[in-house]
Amino acid sequence: MNRKDLYLAALSLTAVQTLMAQEQQRPNVIVFYADDLGYGDLQCYGGKNVPTPNIDRLAAEGCRFDNAFAVAATSTPSRYSLLTGQYAWRKSGTDIARGDAGMIIRPEQYTMADMFKNEGYVTAAFGKWHLGLGDKTGTQDWNAPLAMGLSDIGFDYSYIMAATADRVPCVFIENGRVANWDPSAPIEVSYERPFPCEPTGKEHPELCYNQQSDFGHNQAIVNGIGRIGYMKGGGRALWKDEHLADSIIGHAIGFMRQHRQQPFFMYLATNDIHVPRFPNERFRGKSNMGVRGDVIAQLDWSLGQVMQALRELGLDNNTLIIFSSDNGPVVNDGYKDRAAELLNGHRPAGPLRGNKYSAFEGGTHVPAIVWWPGHVERGSVSKALVSQIDLMASLGQLLNARLPKGAAPDSFKAWDTWMGKDHTDRPWVVEEAANHTLSLRTGKWKYISPCEHPYKIMKNEQIETGYDDKPQLYDLTKDQHEDHNLADKKPAVVRELQEQLQRVMNHADQ
Q1: Is pLDDT above 70 for 478?
Q2: CA 110 to CA 222: how far, in whole Å?
Q3: CA 150, CA 152: separation in Å to the nearest integer?
Q4: Could you tell me which of 362, 231, 263 has the C-alpha nearest to residue 29?
Q5: Residue 24 — φ and ψ, nearest 5°?
Q6: Hey, which end of the chain has fewer CB within 10 Å, N or C?
Q7: How many CB atoms lie within 10 A of CB 485?
Q8: pLDDT bracket for residue 19 (50, 70, 90)
Q9: Mean pLDDT across the stretch 113-120?
Q10: 84 — phi, psi (to 5°)?
Q11: Residue 115 neighbours by CB under 8 Å, 6+ apart
């Protein structure tokens, strides 16, 4: 080899080393998304009866947010908004999705995963998806590769549940195919009618030996638990609810090990605390609050496993974890698991009024913790008003990413705020209830839009909806529980917030 070749080889080696050093400086990013976890469910937020040492440690080593909001009070719209930076109420078909829903995020949309992938990250999604698969609702062939999946919206790898554990199909989907597909038990799914000779929870409740239905959840029976929707087949591909957390976390840690030499982005969405609550035997009795408490302990274990793996792989100082929940808590959501009876003084929404589904604060005011050793002040607490809608643009700031025109249209850049360095409130937060009622919240005021045909209580779930046919206004600096409607006394404030909400809806103040 002559001098010129040696020089060029040295330059190439230097370039490779420089690139590797740059990649090592960019943090791995994990969005750890819990399901139905309330503002008051964790010890670090004042929760009782359930030990959560790993989540508490995350807060002790990072920044805990006291005024963080999911975008919606239900799962599908919150997840859609988080991953696209667009309010779900701008797009039809973003209500709670069936298990056989077609893709809600379409390939032409630019996602958080696209953003990371275009910046050189390897990307993955694990656990609860609930944003549809395939091109059209009800047309999937679950016995073949799906025509459309997460690879079309920026994810290099995925190991997901099509919807959530109380909906069929009760199988994991790995890279667009049913994991462990059993050719001897082809899968059929219907949300319209039962399959002949397949027992249902409604007709055969005695077969629901692991979890009994209270309301709904009495169609297909899988693993001794009634579900929403009808399903036939599956064989060895069917999941066991008691192993869901192990399977999700095991695959996530496997991905981390495989890609420890390159920056990775993981959307890690556990099924805990969603019904049916059927934790692994290891967690039974870990709380004095029954199975709802036990699955919170299981969630805490899941995070602990991820943190332990990061330490073992030497990645803990170069990984950013954003921990939060998709919406507020619900206690009775369709199964006879004695969750309400066994609260024992525990308040899942803490001091807030309302729960999942609700227009009141308990529907969208959620725990949020950001952890990045050496970059986020240990044990810090932020009272800044923040919304998950801003995570896409804010993480784009971290990456110095260039987003295509029109991408993440509702997402504000708030990186310093999410790092706990800037405590300035977001000017306003928009919240969406289950019936599409929109609220606008500032640091002081909460305005809830009037709606037609309001009902005050979800009778089965025993949840206050917050719906009314008149405007509502609450001063949250004095009335955190939203007990005193001041709309009649503060018409100017109502008008100001109504106009601001209308500007948001019209894209006039984005």
Answers
A1: yes
A2: 36
A3: 5
A4: 263
A5: -70, -30
A6: N
A7: 16
A8: very low
A9: 98
A10: -115, -20
A11: 154, 392, 395, 396, 399, 401, 403, 407
Amino acid at 286: K
**111 and 141 Cβ atoms separated by less than 8 Å:** no
- Whether the per-residue pLDDT at 153 is higher than 80: the answer is yes
Residues 396, 397, 398, 403: is their CA dihedral positive or negative?
positive
CA dist., res. 223 & res. 228, Å (int)? 14
Confidence of residue 6 (pLDDT cuts 50, 70, 90): low
Q: What confidence category does residue 2 fall into, taking pLDDT thresholds of 50, 70 and 90?
A: low
Report yes or no: 300 and 361 within 8 Å, Cβ to Cβ.
no
Q: Is the dihedral of CA 403, 404, 406, 407 positive or negative?
A: negative
Written as one letter, the residue type at 264 is: F
Number of CB atoms found within 10 A of residue 247's CB: 17
Nearest residue to 300 via CA among 287, 288, 317: 287
Reading the block at residue 135, the tokens are 């091109």
**Residue 265 φ then ψ, to 5°:** -120, 130
Q: How far is it, in rounded angstroms, from Cα 458 to Cα 353?
A: 14
DSSP three-state, residue 141: coil
Contact criterion met (CB below 8 Å) for 222 and 232: no
User: CA neighbours within 13 Å on the CB side: how many for 356?
Assistant: 24
The pLDDT of 232-258, averaged and rounded, is 98
pLDDT-derived band at 25, boundaries 50, 70, 90: confident
Tokens matching residue 387: 């919304």
Closest by alpha carbon to 244, among 328, 168, 302, 167? Answer: 302
Annotate 302-313 with DSSP letters as a single string.
HHHHHHHHHHHT
Question: What share of the chain has pLDDT > 90, as a percent?
Answer: 94
**Hey, which residues does 435 pair with through a beta bridge?**
none
User: Which position has the token pair 């529907």?
Assistant: 363
**Residue 93 pLDDT greater than 60, yes or no:** yes
CA angle 180, 308, 30 (to 5 degrees): 70
**Separation between Cα atoms, residue 278 and residue 280, nearest integer Å:** 7
Give me the half-sphere count of Cα atoms (radius 13 Å) on the Cβ side of residue 160.
26
Q: Which two tokens stand for residue 139?
A: 């047309």
**Cβ contact 388:81 at 8 Å:** yes
The span from the CA of 313 to the CA of 259, in Å, is 10
Q: Is the alpha carbon torsion for 345, 348, 350, 355 positive or negative?
A: negative
DSSP E strands, 85-168: 122-128, 157-161
pTM of the model: 0.94
Say which DSSP state 103 is in: P
Of residues 9 and 263, more confidently modeled: 263
Model confidence at 312: pLDDT above 70: yes
